User: What shape does this take?
Amino acid sequence: MSTKELLKHARSLQQKKFRDLHGEFLVQGPKVVGELLSSGWPVVEVLATAEQAGRMGLRQAVIVPAYELERVGTLETGNEVIAIARKPAPDGFEALGADELVLALDGIADPGNLGTVLRVADWFGIRRVLCSHGSVDAFIPKCVQSSMGGIFRVRVHYSDLVPLLAREAAAGVAVYAADMGGVSVFSERLQRPAVLVLGSESHGLSAEVRAVAGRVIAVPRNGGAESLNVAVAASALCMEFARQGGVAQ
Amino acid sequence: MSTKELLKHARSLQQKKFRDLHGEFLVQGPKVVGELLSSGWPVVEVLATAEQAGRMGLRQAVIVPAYELERVGTLETGNEVIAIARKPAPDGFEALGADELVLALDGIADPGNLGTVLRVADWFGIRRVLCSHGSVDAFIPKCVQSSMGGIFRVRVHYSDLVPLLAREAAAGVAVYAADMGGVSVFSERLQRPAVLVLGSESHGLSAEVRAVAGRVIAVPRNGGAESLNVAVAASALCMEFARQGGVAQ
Assistant: This one.
């Protein structure tokens, strides 16, 4: 592939249909490309300006002028280095480990929110996030960037959420749904293995998910806000899972 | 003021210098304008399309065509209703109440993050947020929108943070700084009244703030993430303040 073709190919990966077709996605900017390279995740190609390649010690990078990279990248700043990474092959969702906590997202639409949830999961040592079909693609550039490298350490599965949750519940997994109408998480003795389901920002939890969840838990509220951002709610609830689980999982 | 002049005036409030000059700011979209109107906050004017005014029952609104409002508003969707609200007069930062928790932000630059912190504070019943001088303006449209009404219930003060923290510490207030190098918040017996200081996303905590803080506390980490978003970290730490404080403050 000529550099011109490579740039055109890279640019096409801004669109989901080309990410799916080629099984590749974009990673942008020094910070997240650095996370990619140190993670051991399969890399197809790295494009960089000569300066940036020098700064980052990228010996294998394809050197491209800055104005060409600006046409490929979606960042306000940081387009001097852009990597093409391999998407993982889809696989089944395996049974939970004994002490495992998995997050599930029921219809998340905002890629920045999904990325921030992955960053939260990555912080708390959560390895898997389930998304309902129809949720936003985790490999969209905005999500990859917001995850701050979390996408390389937290596996995202797309599934038909209700049957999967029902199957897990039947197998003895504690299924918790987060909703402000639930009981305070502080009053719960949290069980593991567990799946914690968070609803979409605009529609909350679906009735089907609510029905299959064993317990509905809430972040205790003491003020006037009507709701919390999904990543902020995930962070608050993961704190209590971490505390009750003795942090190390 | 003619409608034309009013629209021009409203549009000028996208810029800080005009917000400061007129002591007014913009509130956009049905959700946040609804929060404004139900909060009792002083409103200067509401501009809306005839349809939107009908839907929201806005009898006092100035009716304006949609294309005119699109030129004033900054939202992707929701510009059919835009309010001009009065900025509060700057006032001093009063001593903390006996059980009060105040958040302080050391150099926050992203308006979406500041707004989300205000939404978190609003959820947990925190009434005051301190920002260091040079932090982003809380009345910038993006912050107002991300706060989801939090801006109407949580007071934002701008101050010279280090002397203020030193004064509060001398008066017996527990000053906590959040930093991933700190001790786990789970191992702390959290005191009140308290100020919890969070650093900027790009530079973390300044040495001066670190020196004046009594204790440096962390959200325990069990995974690979390098850091947490400031609003996510605020949420995690406020959880533990809420739990140890018995939630009601």
Observations:
- The beta strands of chain B are 24-28, 43-48, 62-63, 81-86, 101-106, 128-132, 155-159, 174-184, 194-199, 215-218.
- Chain B touches chain A through 39 residues (CB under 8 Å).
- The radius of gyration of chain B is 20 Å.
- Chain B has ten helices and ten strands.
